[in-house]
Design goal:
Layout (H helix, E strand, L loop, with lengths): L2 H13 L1 H23 L9 H4 L1 H24 L1 H8 L3 H34 L10 H28 L2 H27 L8 H8 L11 H26 L2
Helix pairs in contact: 1-6, 2-4, 2-6, 4-6, 4-7, 4-8, 6-7, 6-10, 7-8, 7-10, 9-10
Length: about 240
C-alpha cells in the first residue's frame, strides 16, 4: 500500500453518490436521535454526555454500512477490475480501500460528535455537557476510533459477500438481532454468557455505552474488536485472491 493507492481509493469514494447519501443520512439520523435522547434523558432528570452521544452511536452503524457499500458497489459496477489492473495486488488494493474507508469514518464520527454537542446545547442549554470523568472523555474521544474499526469490518464483509443487498442485510441483522439472539441462545444452552465477547457489544463498552463490561476492560475491548476486524479483512483478501488470482 502506498500514497497513490490511497489517493485513488479516496478519489473513487468521494465520487460515489452513495458516499454522500450515506453521510447525509448518518448526520441527519444521528443529530435527530441526539435531540430525542437529550430531550428525554434515560438515567437522570438532567441530560448528560451519554445522552448527547446516543446519536453518534447510531451513526456508527450507518458508517459501517457506508464502508461496506463502498466495496460492494465496485464489484457491482465493475470498477474494481480497473483498479486491479492499476494495482495488481489484492492485499495492497483492499488494504488501501479499508484504510481510506476507516479514515473517512473516523472523520465523519468526529463531525457527528461535534454536531451532537451543538444540538444538545440548543435543546438543553442549561444542562452541563462538560466532560469531567474518564468515562465521559472516553465517550467523546473513542467514537471516531470505533467508527474507523467498524469501517474496516464493513469493507471486509463487503468484499466477502460482494452483494450490496446481502452485505447490508447481514450487517443489520447481525448487529440488531444476531448478537442478542446468539448471546441468549448460548446462555440458555450452555449457561455461558458470551455477550461481552460479541464484537459490537464489546465496542459499545469501549465507547462507554450501556452493556456488559468486557473482561479485560474497555481498552482491551477496542483491541479485541480491531483484531477481529483486521482478521476478517485478511480473510476477505485471501478469499478474493482465490476467486481472482
Amino acid at each position: 500500500m502506498n500514497a497513490s493507492v490511497l489517493k485513488a481509493e479516496a478519489t473513487k469514494l468521494r465520487s460515489l453518490t452513495s458516499t454522500w447519501t450515506f453521510l447525509t443520512i448518518a448526520a441527519v439520523v444521528s443529530l435527530l436521535f441526539s435531540v430525542f435522547a437529550v430531550d428525554h434523558p434515560t438515567y437522570t432528570e438532567e441530560p448528560g454526555i451519554s445522552d448527547a452521544m446516543a446519536g453518534p452511536g447510531l451513526g456508527q452503524l450507518l458508517l459501517t454500512l457506508l464502508a461496506a457499500r463502498s466495496a460492494t458497489q465496485e464489484f457491482r459496477t465493475g470498477t474494481i477490475w480497473a483498479s486491479y489492473l492499476a494495482v495488481p495486488s489484492w492485499p495492497r488494493l483492499l488494504t488501501g480501500k479499508a484504510a481510506v474507508a476507516a479514515l473517512l469514518a473516523a472523520l465523519a464520527g468526529a463531525v457527528l460528535v461535534a454536531g451532537s454537542f451543538v444540538v444538545a446545547l440548543l435543546v438543553s442549554s442549561e444542562a452541563d455537557f462538560t466532560p469531567s470523568t474518564v468515562l465521559e472523555w472516553r465517550q467523546i474521544l473513542a467514537l471516531p476510533l470505533a467508527c474507523a474499526t467498524c469501517a474496516v469490518l464493513g469493507v471486509a464483509v463487503g468484499v466477502l459477500l460482494r452483494s450490496g443487498g446481502a452485505t447490508i442485510t447481514v450487517l443489520l441483522m447481525w448487529t440488531l438481532a444476531g448478537e442478542p439472539a446468539m448471546s441468549s441462545l448460548v446462555q440458555w444452552l450452555l449457561g455461558v454468557d458470551i455477550g461481552a465477547w460479541l464484537p459490537f457489544v464489546a465496542l459499545s463498552d469501549f465507547v462507554g455505552q450501556p452493556g456488559p463490561p468486557f473482561p479485560g476492560g474497555p481498552y482491551a475491548a477496542a483491541l479485541y474488536v480491531f483484531a477481529l476486524s483486521a482478521a476478517l479483512l485478511l480473510l476477505a483478501i485471501k478469499v478474493q485472491g482465490r476467486r481472482e488470482p
